[in-house]
Amino acid sequence: MDRMYDVIIIGGGPAGLAAAVYxxxxxxxxxxxxxxxxxxxxxxxxxVVNYPGVLKTTGKELTEQxxxxxxxxxxxxxxxxxxxxxxxxxxKEVHTDKGTFKxxxxxxxxxxxxxxxxxxxxxxxxxxxxxxxxxxxxEFFTGLDVFVVGGGFAAAEEAIFLTRxxxxxxxxxxxxxxxCAGSIADEAKRHEQxxxxxxxxxxxxxxxxxxxxxxxENCKTGERTRYETSDATFGVFVFAGYVPVGGPxxxxxxxxxxxxxxxxxxxxxxxxxxxxxxxxxxKNLRQVVTAVSDGAKAATSLEKYAAQLHxxxxxxxxxxTKKQITEPAVKQTxxxxxxxxxxxxxxxxxxxxxxxxxxxxxxx
Length: 364
Fold this sequence. Notes:
The protein is α/β, with parallel strands linked by helices. The chain has helices spanning 14-25, 59-72, 134-137, 153-162, 182-190, 288-313, 329-334, 346-356; strands at 4-10, 30-34, 76-79, 82-86, 92-96, 99-108, 112-114, 130-131, 145-149, 168-173, 194-198, 200-206, 213-218, 224-228, 235-238, 242-244, 274-276.
């Protein structure tokens, strides 16, 4: 019974955290499984100013508050990789690298990840010159040249943002023009630090430990250009959309041609007791506020289903233990310097806990 829950939420981003708050507050035994870090992709955003009711914050601070809120209502968190699931029965199973867990319902909230373009060297130099987030990596290329690959809204907007740091930004657009609204595209075209090359695709990057050269091609003429730098390096930022995270976890669930999860207005999938929330689902707008909305809808719908299944299977209500949390962990971390001089403070120990959890041998 220790591994039996009312709901298992796969994904610890804003959608999963919102669902955890609603489920745990309704006194349902809730487990959130997250592979990497609680908070999801929004944690790399240094400035969030469009979340209603919050004037200004960071992605990390916002999602940390969500986690603390869910935990205070009794939600449990597990850092583990969900590998596959069995969803076509009353008692669902989620198999992870830390064992199998069972539940009456499952909320899929794994999100989506940046799409790779596929040029030579893209995977090899990811994190060593090739990046997918201007906010988190732009500063690394202060005073250097930067290429932006893409022709949509994100490419135009992030190209403008990167001019804060880069010496010059070159945008490679595969088509005849940007595909986003004219207002943002025109701003990029007019910017004195931005050069836009149309009908152009990145072919290859390389250079050793860091990027030293890039080769791109005019798709109409076939003319190739080789860029080389004598500086320390340069940057290539790829903005080509996102790919939903799913794989074997979505077996038996209806998805569209791109792999996004099909849900109804209550976030229910084609299987009873299985719901979707956040960027994994088909939707027009992928923002924190819409992810949180999805999580709330999925949870409230699942509450009713779980109650009915408890009666059907004659299961007792699972115990949910609330936790008393008086101070946000973010503030505790900032106050780490006030500790009693220990080599590793309590705040740092808290931060290191998920790292230690991944170790396969004893730590001495």
